Amino acid sequence: MKNIKRIIVSVCVALLFVLPVFHPDIYYLSFGFMLFTYIALASSWNIIGGYAGYLSFGHAAFFGVGAYTVALLLINYGLSPFYTCILGGVFAAILAGLFGYPALRLKGPYFAVASLLLGLIMQIVVANLSFTGGTVGLWMPFLRVSIFTNRAIFYEVMLGLALLIVLISHWVEKSKFGLGLRAIREDEETAETMSVNPTKLKMQAIMLSAFLTGIIGGIFAYYRVYLLPDSMFATFLSIEIVTMALFGGSTSWLGPIIGATILTVLSEVMSGFLNIPSELSRIAYGVILILVIMFLPNGVVSLFKKRRTLANKELESKV
Length: 319
Known about the structure:
Blueprint: H1 2-18, H2 26-51, H3 59-77, H4 81-103, H5 109-127, E1 138-139, H6 147-174, H7 176-186, H8 188-193, H9 198-224, E2 226-227, H10 229-232, H11 235-248, H12 254-273, H13 278-295, H14 301-318
Antiparallel strand pairs: 1-2
Helix pairs in contact: 2-6, 2-7, 2-9, 2-11, 2-12, 3-4, 3-5, 3-9, 4-9, 6-7, 6-9, 7-9, 11-12, 11-13
């Protein structure tokens, strides 16, 4: 059964990779890019927010740092964001380390507020620096290819990046590292008595999460071309990431994929087809976040697990 599932997943992923070969409408490539971006962001966030249980509302700071890093390297030195995005991830990880060492001593809502302030502070700092373009922003040069080829390149790159991050998230969940993070999430003090080093694991988790988020920000910046502090460090981006991971199920590597897919499609339907204003979409995200926390704390993925458990019990009773 597992082999069949793996084959089906592999075929689906392969079909996604070859989609540009069939020259679909540019809209589908653009939508695919955004979908893969949110899957990658939610999966990255889940390493610290889901496995370790530290609810971070500041991941927009790491995203923005990655974006501005590649933008400045491209504008000033002509270096391609397709490889300098790694450096964007490094700077994001450094920021996460500087923030995390004192902030991870906080717990619950105190850490959430501290992480939220990190994003707001970074937005203000970047907006007041001359070499970042300030409030005017930065323009990055376009790829010298056709619009379709441009969208196809970014589609493929973000799909590959999302796949890599999902695999990393899956590895973390199954590893000893992930086991330690889950122990911290359940009871940090008890975990410490079981030879778990909470400070070390939490620092590794937030820096890995930030590193991956910074890489995504770098690629996304090149896709957007024009960068503004308000958009690259947007608080709403952090809220979207958290909502997607929690909605799908933050205790599983599969949850962020489900949450990001459902909510991205829902958002596209609301804004693209129903012409619902973006302000109402943001209200909808807030409502969804509240409802998930109240009635579905383990996310949508828990419903599938319950059905599987019931199905197994029925099968056992028949046997």
